[in-house]
């Protein structure tokens, strides 16, 4: 479904990623590990075109991501971050629905879909509260719902459990694993945690000195 072929990226002549080849199948639960500064976030940003690669190709369902308008790409890829990135002055529901509004979708339909997903992750009663009233694990579940709202093909999760204690981290990943089955979405999870990779990964890579190596 997602193919990277010979993807490279440098910053100021400093190579960060060099000839990266990766493949993620539909519905796959894939993990990427690597030291701080190894280029993991850069790789994720190339996928959703927050940054542009220097060379190589990236395709989703056989179509180059360069051929898709940014909003089309954002519909195909949901993103989740370590810091949750929720708007503090908007309610949980507003935070979720806003993501779809930017993409021009029908507000009523989105609200119904957001409530369905909030119920699924056990946060139905938090729909109208501010995210600052929620625990870290709850905030990340809101961010997951927001990422799922547009029925993406894949969720890119850049250290989604980096701000969570180990138990909450496991719970969030268990939920993500269930949701990828139910919602038919692939996930690419970046984590430092060897434990989480051993527990959850169906496929994993390590990023090292600009190259990406699949673990067998
Ligand atoms: N926009 C940028 N401009 C210049 N250098 C950058 C930029 N983004 C990241 N870098 C550098 O690229 C390297 C990889 O960064 P990053 O992808 O954030 O690593 P990771 O997520 O694995 O910790 C780091 O050395 C970082 O300083
Ligand atoms: Mg990073």
UniProtKB/TrEMBL annotation:
It is found in: Cell membrane. Residues 2-216 form the ABC transporter domain. GO terms for biological process: cell division. It is a peripheral membrane protein. SMART domains: AAA. GO terms for molecular function: ATP binding; ATP hydrolysis activity. Its main location: membrane. GO terms for cellular component: plasma membrane. Keywords: ATP-binding, Cell cycle, Cell division, Cell membrane, Membrane, Nucleotide-binding, Transport. Pfam families: ABC_tran (PF00005). It comes from the Bacteria. InterPro entries: AAA+_ATPase, ABC_transporter-like_ATP-bd, ABC_transporter-like_CS, MacB-like_ATP-bd, MetN_ABC_transporter-like, P-loop_NTPase. Belongs to the ABC transporter superfamily. This is Cell division transport system ATP-binding protein. The lineage of its organism: Bacteria, Bacillati, Bacillota, Bacilli, Bacillales.
């Amino acid at each position: 479904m997602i193919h990277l072929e010979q993807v490279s990226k440098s910053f100021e002549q400093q190579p960060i990623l060099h000839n990266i080849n990766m493949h993620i199948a539909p519905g796959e639960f894939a993990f990427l590990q690597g030291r701080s500064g190894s280029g993991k976030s850069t790789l994720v940003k190339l996928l959703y075109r927050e940054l542009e690669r220097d060379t190589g190709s990236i395709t989703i369902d056989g179509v180059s991501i360069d051929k898709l308008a940014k909003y089309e790409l954002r519909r195909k890829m949901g993103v989740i971050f370590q810091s949750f990135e929720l708007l503090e002055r908007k309610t949980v529901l507003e935070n979720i629905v806003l993501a779809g509004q930017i993409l021009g979708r029908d507000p009523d339909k989105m609200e119904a879909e957001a409530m369905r997903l909030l119920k699924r992750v056990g946060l139905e009663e938090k729909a109208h509260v501010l995210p600052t009233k929620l625990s870290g694990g709850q905030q990340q579940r809101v961010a997951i719902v927001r990422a799922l709202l547009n029925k993406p093909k894949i969720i890119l999760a850049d250290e989604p459990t980096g701000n969570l204690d180990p138990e909450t981290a496991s719970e969030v990943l268990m939920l993500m694993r269930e949701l990828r089955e139910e919602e038919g979405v692939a996930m690419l999870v970046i984590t430092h945690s060897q434990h989480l990779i051993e527990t959850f990964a169906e496929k994993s890579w390590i990023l090292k000195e600009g190259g990406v190596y699949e673990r067998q």
